[in-house]
Amino acid sequence: MAAPAVHCRACAYDWHTEGMADGLRLIGSCPRCGGELEFASPAPRHDVAEPIISDARPAHMVLGVPRGW
After folding, report:
1. How far is CA 27 from CA 37, 38, 61, in A?
2. Where are the domains of the chain?
3. Which of 1, 12, 50, 59 is deepest in the core (most CB within 10 A)?
C-alpha cells in the first residue's frame, strides 16, 4: 500500500488522497483528535494572477441571454 498523504501523530489515523491533504492543511490539525499532522509532501504553491479586465461591459452583454427565454 502507498504511503499516506497525511498522518496524525497523536491518533495514528492516515488519509490517502491529496484532496484530503489540501483540506487538512486549511484546518491545521487532526479533525478526529486535534493532534499534529504530518504531511508526506509540502503544500503546492498556488500563484494567483491578477484578473485581466478588458472592458466594463455588464455580464449579460458578454454572456448573452439565459437559455429558456
Report:
1. 10, 13, 40
2. 1-42
3. 12
